[in-house]
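queue> pop job 88
queue> type: inverse folding (structure -> sequence)
queue> payload:
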């Protein structure tokens, strides 16, 4: 794992240590009656110690994601954040501006591939804040599997989610306004999954949405709303109220990340074989 990815991972663990969410479940290949009756550790009342149980959503026996499981999964996310924060941030090129019309084909391609007009560090903090506040880096949202894995869903008269109606997907809870994302053409199911490519699709779509918000916030209308980072979160969430609780929470997390450690603990490096 490259140093920048390690730095991102350290920040993620600083925000919320893995292995604590009841929604983050790991499938178990087989589990007989003895397995189902045997706690994985002690005390048995501890969430990660619970004996495996059947999940209709996973169609498998499952257990709670523990710290080691979660840290390794976080590592995948950190690698993608580190890579995309570099490759999707605008770089100054003579004769090509991130704004305006009448650009050459090469310039238009550059605008598409590098849409973020802030700094790479700003992008990392913004996307980590967004993921943390939208999904808490949870495994179910990452994989797309689970009763609360997707958002903005329609419900029936009994409050149950109507299958196929959810509009927000993956770690960044990207809102799908059509069948595919506007630039990359990803479907909702292409946005979820814990592999490196699937995580990359999710975060690429998330960054594109954040980049559109950042461009709006760079304009006069955006500057009138709030500071750059706060404005980005307001546009992404869909509110014009800077005192909205969701915006305050994001602003707090964004500020907190400025104090995040830049190096992994030795114990975490050992788990990851670094």
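queue> result:
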């Amino acid at each position: 794992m490259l140093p920048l990815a390690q730095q991102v991972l350290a920040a993620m663990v600083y925000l919320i240590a893995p292995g604590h969410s009841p929604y983050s479940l790991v499938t178990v290949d087989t589990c007989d009656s003895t397995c189902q009756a045997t706690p994985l550790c002690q005390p048995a009342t501890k969430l990660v110690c619970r004996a495996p149980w059947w999940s209709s959503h996973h169609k498998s026996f499952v257990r709670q994601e523990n710290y080691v499981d979660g840290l390794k999964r976080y590592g995948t996310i950190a690698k993608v954040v580190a890579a995309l924060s570099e490759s999707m941030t605008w770089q100054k090129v003579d004769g090509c501006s991130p704004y305006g019309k009448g650009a050459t084909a090469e310039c238009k391609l550059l605008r598409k591939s590098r849409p973020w007009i802030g700094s790479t560090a700003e992008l990392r903090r913004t996307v980590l804040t967004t993921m943390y506040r939208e999904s808490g880096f949870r495994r179910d949202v990452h994989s797309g599997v689970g009763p609360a894995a997707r958002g903005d869903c329609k419900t029936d008269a009994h409050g149950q989610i109507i299958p196929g109606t959810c509009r927000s997907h993956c770690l960044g809870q990207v809102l799908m306004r059509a069948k595919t994302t506007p630039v990359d053409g990803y479907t909702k199911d292409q946005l979820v999954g814990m592999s490196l490519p699937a995580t990359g699709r999710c975060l690429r779509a998330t960054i594109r949405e954040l980049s559109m918000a950042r461009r709006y916030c760079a304009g006069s209308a955006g500057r009138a709303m709030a500071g750059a980072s706060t404005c980005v979160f307001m546009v992404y969430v869909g509110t014009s109220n800077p005192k909205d609780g969701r915006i305050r929470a994001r602003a707090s997390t964004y500020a907190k990340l400025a104090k995040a450690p830049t190096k992994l603990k030795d114990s975490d490096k050992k788990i990851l074989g670094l």
